[in-house]
Write a structure and sequence with these properties.
Blueprint: E1 7-14, H1 18-29, E2 34-37, E3 52-53, E4 70-73, E5 76-80, E6 86-90, E7 100-102, H2 104-117, E8 121-123, E9 126-134, E10 137-145, E11 148-159, H3 167-170, E12 182-191, E13 199-203, E14 212-219, E15 222-230, H4 239-249, H5 252-255, E16 258-268, E17 277-278, E18 281-283, H6 299-319, H7 324-352, H8 357-369, H9 377-387, H10 389-392
Parallel strand pairs: 1-2, 1-11, 2-8, 5-13, 11-18
Antiparallel strand pairs: 3-7, 4-7, 5-6, 9-10, 10-11, 12-15, 12-16, 13-14, 14-15, 17-18
Helix pairs in contact: 1-2, 1-6, 6-7, 8-9
The chain binds flavin-adenine dinucleotide.
Length: 399
């Protein structure tokens, strides 16, 4: 039934992606009256994702792996240099996007079900249009459903509205990105391809300037074949498709495949955001630029921060202490878990995007021949320095 009157709640979550559902679930579990609104008519659909996630964080945020959304469990990743020297990394060390290849629509729905079961009320096809303010503080949103406008009043509003987030902008939180801090992505779901279900594959170098080509297997000859290219390296928006089509044409195991769907979208590859809260409002997930700038994976970080966001939002709303200073607890707690890695990976990404193909070849060449006890930026650089000291000169400050 369409909403015809204004609504009221403790915590209002805008956006029912993974970050929003996690926030809603943990806010409801901590005793808040929670509403989550989603502008699309179906949570999780259409899918705009490579669908790769790592495993290690799931238990920490209360997500139980389920055959309802796990598509393929991979052993690890293969990183290909421009001349296609290959390095294998096991799943534990391969980063945010390697472990399971999921059915993202089913995954998002499962998280929304968890949020609903914890007590969240969900309104679909409900678009936030702007924030409401009183004495400079955010007190809710103006929303629209089936052409009907109404207001939702809330003690705390959480912007979980993704990469194109508007809640932050409306609330006056600086979330703008420079074009060098964005990747433009395009992905085909392809059938009849030669992907290996044991690995998520990544291809580096000028096949995808400032990013990479990925192949995430879905089983039975099906795979997500996608590309991310740094926006500042594109001459026109359609060029990202030219890069992907060229890569596919050069790889017979994929050139013989057939495309069955296509999705595009942006990811941030930026340093951590400077501000994630303001009076009465919090940002989480892609809206708070929490994507790993090296891998482009954002699901894990969004969910990890979502749990913290939900806990802090519930406590703030229930105690009536929702000023920026009160909500800073969330800012401090997510930074304690995520910020150092986000920053380190941003620095590493900045270096990597400037490397010529020959250097990538040398790095992968070294790494394919050594057994690293622990895969860290430091260990990689040390191994490369032994064989190609000239390559690591630029990285001396990281060594
Ligand atoms: C092509 C591509 C491939 C990717 N592959 C991977 C991958 O393999 N692994 C990985 O970890 N990450 C990947 N990512 C990144 C990942 O998709 C995001 O980090 C993740 O979706 C972030 O979740 P979120 O909940 O913060 O935002 P989203 O999932 O974007 O959810 C935001 C929600 O808010 C809703 N919304 C927006 N505005 C409003 C509004 N005004 N009112 C109401 N609702 C609104 C949207 O409809 C959406 O449902 C990929 C991204 C792209 C573009």
């Amino acid at each position: 039934m369409a909403i015809s009157t204004d609504l009221k709640c403790d915590v209002l979550v805008v956006g029912a992606g993974p970050s929003g559902s996690m926030t809603a679930k943990w806010a409801a579990k901590n005793g808040a009256d929670v509403i989550m609104i989603e502008k699309r008519q179906e949570i999780g659909s259409p899918v705009r994702c490579g669908e790769g996630i790592s495993k290690s964080w799931l238990a920490d945020v209360g997500i139980t792996p389920s055959s309802r959304w796990i598509n393929v469990e991979v052993e690890g990743a293969r990183i290909y240099s421009p001349s296609e020297k290959v390095m294998e990394i096991n799943e534990k060390h391969a980063g945010n996007e390697v472990g399971y290849v999921v059915e993202r629509d089913a995954f998002d729905k499962a998280l929304a079900i968890d949020a609903a079961n914890a007590g969240t009320t969900i309104h679909l096809k409900t678009h936030a249009l702007d924030v409401l303010r009183k004495d400079g503080r955010v007190t809710g949103v103006k929303a629209k459903q089936f052409g009907q406008k109404f207001e939702i009043h809330a003690s705390v509003v959480v912007g979980a509205d993704g990469f194109e987030s508007q809640v932050g902008r409306w609330a006056g939180i600086p979330t703008n990105l420079q074009i060098r801090d964005m990747d433009s992505c395009l992905q085909y779901r392809m059938t009849n391809v030669d992907s290996d279900v044991r690995y998520c594959d990544f291809y580096l170098g000028k096949c995808a300037p400032g990013g990479y080509v990925w192949v995430f297997p879905k089983g039975d000859g099906l795979a997500n074949v996608g590309i991310g290219v740094q926006v500042s390296k594109l001459h026109h928006p359609a060029e990202v498709r030219d890069y992907l089509d060229r890569w596919i044409a050069q790889h017979p195991g994929y050139a013989k495949g057939k495309k069955i769907d296509m999705v595009g979208g942006g990811v941030s590859i930026s340093p951590p955001i400077k501000q994630s809260v303001a009076d009465g409002v919090m940002l989480v997930g892609d809206a708070a630029r929490m994507i790993d700038p090296l891998t482009g994976g954002g699901i894990a970080n969004g969910c990890i921060a979502g749990k913290i966001c939900g806990e802090v939002a519930a406590r703030a709303a229930k105690s009536g202490r929702t000023s920026k200073a009160d909500l800073m607890e969330y800012d401090r707690r997510w930074r304690a878990v995520l910020e150092e890695k986000l920053l380190r990976n941003w620095v590493a990404k900045e270096k990597l995007v400037s490397l010529p193909d020959e250097t990538f070849d040398k790095i992968i060449d070294v790494l394919s021949g050594v057994r690293l006890e622990k895969l860290s930026v430091l260990n990689i650089l040390k191994a490369v320095r032994e064989r190609y000291p000239e390559v690591t000169q630029e990285f001396e400050n990281l060594l």
